[in-house]
Amino acid sequence: MAHQRKTKKKRRKKNKSWTVWVTVLILLGSAGYLGAYFFMPNDKTWEFHEYFDLDPNAVTMVVRDTRLEDVHPLERNEVIYFPYAFVKEYIDDTLFWDDDALTATITTRDKVLRLTADSTTYTENGEPKELTQPFLYIEDKIYLPSDFLTRFYPISIAYDSAVKIAAMDYLNERRDMGMVAGRTANLRYKPDKKAFIEERLDLGARMNVYQKEGDYARVRVESGLLGYLHLKDFIEMTPLGPDSEPAPVEFPSRKSVQGKINLVFDQVFSPADSAKPEKYIFQDGLDVLAPTWFSFDIETLNGDIISIADSDYVRRAHDSGRQVWALLSDFSADAARVRNSDVNHAVLSRTRIRERVIAQIMDLISRYDLDGINIDFEYLQPEDAAYYSQFFRELAPYMRAKGKTLSVDVYNPVPEKYWSQYYNRRAVGECVDYMIVMAYDEHTNGTESGPVASLPFVEAGIAQTLEEVPKDKVLLGLPYYARVWREEIIDGTLQNSLKNYDMQTGYEQLADRGAQLTWDTGIGALYGEYAAVEDDKAVTYKVWLEDERSIEEKLKLLRKYDLAGAVGWKRGLEKAEIWGLLKRYLK
Q1: CATH code for the domain in which residue 177 is found
Q2: β-sheet bridge partners, residue 145
Q3: Together in a domain, 225 and 314
Q4: Contact at 8 Å (CB) between 256 and 287?
Q5: Average pLDDT for consecutive 10-residue bins of the chain (587 residues)?
Q6: How many domains does the chain have?
Q7: N or C: which end of the chain has fewer CB within 10 A?
């Protein structure tokens, strides 16, 4: 019995010793496993398409260091085509598509390019050119070939057919570069050694280097794959770019004006009006005449321009040292039959018609030796706003190529008239040489009686325009007319109407009736009124008189904001004193 007890005791000690050793081994194994887990890098790879659950047959788009999940270029015979929406968002927000004509228009400072679906040619400023790959139109979607885009835009596009990634860079941006320094380097999906390996890179492999995160940097390798490399695995190289800008296109010089511009609108209604003797009186300090010569044929509404221009008018203006910027309007000669808004819709909304209009403008400039064109489209509707901007983008390159001045008339963008914001002053201002702010008609038909152009109205319009257009392009529109209001009570309601007069007649209208005129400092004009009885009814006449004093207050604003000049509406309504003021403030 004693022997058995000793044997059992020895056996228990042996079992206990074995258990301790197993436990130690387990702990050591666990520690080794945990050590390997926490300290050893992950050596497993995960294929790019599987990792992100992507269609391996679809082309993946990468811009800089961003993979675009909702953009899928097309591959056709090893050529990559990019969706229109992508090109417009990431390359050219002025790219314009005409769904009716199946035509895309690209505009640069000196070119207008038009591509039509499935055509092997395109036009450059109207001249046909060969296209290596046609522009595609598939299932109502538009695709532009990569070689065309890289030809006309400062971008590079690299495509790797093995991984089906198209990677795009902007050549006008700096690109930091790197190169694998060791024998191999692991591109990982995350900045973590435990992250899966996306690709194993060989010595000398090059990459674009983006932001650094801890011990890693986000990179894009030559295949287009995006991931993270440990900083010790690569060396940084001399950065690329931005590429030097191409030499600026040399355009013929526009005829210059000494000092700030002094322009006057010259309203004419027939060819005979341009030949009247008073048209050949050129006031001292006047630089530019804008005769209202051009309008659209409302019978055809196909872009035909009706001209009442006069070559002798231009010749005499030139002989006196003045320029002529003839005006083209969207005014309908028969608004009861064809609305003004229908006119500009017809001529702006179709690519073919815009081309026709621009061709005629350039022909008229050449035929009459004009120095420029003034565009006065005042009846634009919101649905045509995009066409309006596009018209100027397409017209501007032709005007620059001829050294001619392009100007536009726009409403005063004060809050009361903020409805005109869709005229897109910023976009149009990038195209034109001058933008004329029509800082008048603050009160007109359909409003309460009030001044034509109070100082707060004018200054607010200047300030808001300068938020979108540089001051050296802004011309201040001045009213050379007086507006006399007639008010009466009809059925208990105040009703008003108005008549426009030249400055002198407006003054006489008041003075002859004994009206007291007082200067309204806040408005910046003389105010007067008088009562009368007409058809046994009491009526009141009111006027906020525009004269040399009110115009001078506006010229002070022009000087305060250092604008490019002044424009008066219209010739023949001003008092003689106005010309001396203009010369003093502008010259």
Answers
A1: 3.30.457.10
A2: 81
A3: no
A4: no
A5: 52 55 54 58 96 96 97 92 97 96 95 93 94 90 93 95 96 96 93 97 96 97 98 95 82 92 97 95 97 96 97 98 98 85 94 97 98 96 95 98 97 74 94 97 94 97 96 98 96 95 95 93 97 94 97 98 98 97 97
A6: 2
A7: N
Omega into 242 within 30° of 0, i.e. cis? Answer: yes
Whether 523 maps to a domain, the answer reads: no
Q: Give the SS3 label for residue 272.
A: helix
Give the three-state DSSP class for 357.
Answer: helix
Task: Looking at the structure, tell me whether residues 303 and 384 fall in a common domain.
Answer: yes
Residues 220 and 349 in one domain: no
Judgement on whether residues 227 and 360 belong to the same structural domain of the protein? no
- Residue 158 lies inside a defined structural domain of this protein: yes
What pLDDT is attached to residue 334? Answer: 84
Same domain, 363 and 425: yes
SS (H, E, C) 281-317: CCCCCCCEEEECCEEECCCCCCCCEEECCCHHHHHHH
The letter for the amino acid at 398 is Y
State which residues form the domain around 358.
261-480+548-586
Q: Which residues, in sequence order, are CB contacts of 475 under 8 Å at separation 6+? A: 261, 263, 407, 434, 435, 436, 437, 563, 564, 565, 566, 567
The answer to whether the beta carbons of residues 509 and 484 sit under 8 Å apart is yes
Burial 303-329 (b: 16+ CB within 10 A, else e): bebebbbbeebbebbeeeebbbbbbbb
User: Nearest 5°: phi and psi at 453?
Assistant: -160, 85
| CATH at residue 405 | 3.20.20.80
Whole-Å CA distances, 257 to 322, 372, 557? 9, 13, 21
Contact 107, 115 (CB under 8 A): no
Q: 3-class SS at 262? A: strand
Q: Is residue 100 in a domain?
A: yes
Helices (H) and strands (E) in the chain, counts: 13, 35
Dmax over CA atoms of the chain, in Å, equals: 150
Which conformational region is residue 186 in: left (phi greater than 0), alpha (psi within -120 to 50 degrees), or beta? beta
d(CA 46, CA 149): 34
- 263 contacts: CB under 8 Å, gap ≥ 6: 287, 288, 289, 290, 325, 436, 475, 565, 566, 567, 568
Q: Can you give the pLDDT at residue 372?
A: 98
And the tokens for 26?
């387990």
Residue located via tokens 């109207």:
126
Question: What pLDDT does 164 receive?
Answer: 96
Which of 475, 470, 406, 414 is CA-nearest to residue 442? 414
Would residue 575 count as lying in a domain?
yes
Instruction: Specify whether 228 is located in the same domain as 89.
Output: yes
CA torsion angle 33 35 38 40 (round to 10) = -90
CB 179 within 8 Å of CB 232: no
Q: Quick one: which H or E segment has residue 506? A: helix 503-511
Residues 6+ apart with CB under 8 A from 485: 449, 496, 497, 498, 541, 542, 543
Tell whether 319 and 197 lie within a shared domain.
Answer: no
User: Do residue 215 and residue 315 come from a single domain?
Assistant: no
